[in-house]
Amino acid sequence: MSNKQSISDGLEDLYAIAIMAQKMEGFIAKTVSSARLCSAKSEHEAIGRGTEAARKSWPESDGWYSHQACVAMVPRDAVKVIAEQYKKSEERP
Q1: Domain map of the chain by residue range?
Q2: Which residue, among 25, 71, 23, has the nearest Cα to 51 in the 3D structure?
Q3: How buried is 19 (Cβ within 10 angstroms: 0-12 exposed, 13-18 middle, 19+ buried)?
Q4: Other beta carbons within 10 Å of 17
């Protein structure tokens, strides 16, 4: 499924996001990263949300810079399977 199809059907897709930032500590560049999920209508929107999450997690006011996000769309079929498994696990006593 292409991003054009995703946008045209009005549904948001689920994206896995890796966010990161850097900070100088003396002569050493420290790099931090984290993983997130978000829903978005496009890869571009997901990257924007991820970059914003990186800025919130590691603020520029604390010396962090080079905030970045890399994304990968989670296939809708996989989301359906995960949702079905979660539902089944909630039904168990």
Answers
A1: 3-91
A2: 71
A3: buried
A4: 21
* pTM for this predicted structure: 0.75
Separation CA 35–CA 21 (nearest Å): 12
Tokens representing 6 are 């995703």
Q: What are phi and psi of 80, to 5 degrees?
A: -60, -45
Residue found under tokens 């970059």: 51
Model confidence over 41-53: pLDDT tens digits? Answer: 999 999 999 999 9
Q: Where does the pLDDT of residue 91 fall: very low under 50, low under 70, confident under 90, or very high at 90 and above?
A: confident
All residues at 6 or more sequence positions from 18 whose CB lies less than 8 Å from its CB, including other chains? 33, 34, 35, 50, 69, 70, 71
